[in-house]
Amino acid sequence: MWAGAEAELAAKASVHTPSELAAWGVALVEALDADGWCGSGRQAVRSTM
Description:
The chain contains 2 helices and no strands. The chain is mainly alpha-helical.
């Protein structure tokens, strides 16, 4: 499931801006996070790339 999400996000990388990818990625993780572990208690991770 997560590998498919990574592939989808990678496919969008050549078409969308970094901000759009970040927003889409957050929504995707929230949708896939069945147990709520990645919820509001988790700090945002900022890329240094």
